[in-house]
């Protein structure tokens, strides 16, 4: 819920920069039920959190590939929905680039 707010998304992005909290944040994203992650990816501020999570986990793919690929697999079924929204187009482009 914090990621849906302007200041909250900024805080969560900062947490994604540190190794100690990164795993916790990404695991929480992966635990989103139903279309929770899609709603976050399409939201005004949450899309920055999802993009940051994809980037930082991709950089660590040799260490924690499960986090990166978990996000990719959870978002891929929604790729067409992500393309249709201004806020989530950068996420769709990222997913397209790794396919």
TrEMBL record:
The subcellular location is: Cytoplasm
Q: Where are the Pumilio repeats?
A: 28-69
Q: Name one GO biological process term.
A: regulation of translation
Query: Domain PUM-HD spans what residues?
Result: 1-99
The entry's keywords: Cytoplasm, Repeat, RNA-binding, Translation regulation
Where does it sit, as one GO cellular component term?
cytoplasm
Example GO molecular function: mRNA binding
Q: Which PROSITE patterns match?
A: PUM, PUM_HD
**Gene3D superfamilies associated with the record:** Leucine-rich Repeat Variant
Q: Which PANTHER family match?
A: PUMILIO HOMOLOG 16-RELATED, RNA BINDING PROTEIN PUMILIO-RELATED
The protein here is known as: PUM-HD domain-containing protein
Annotated organism of origin: Microthlaspi erraticum
Supply the source organism's classification.
Eukaryota, Viridiplantae, Streptophyta, Embryophyta, Tracheophyta
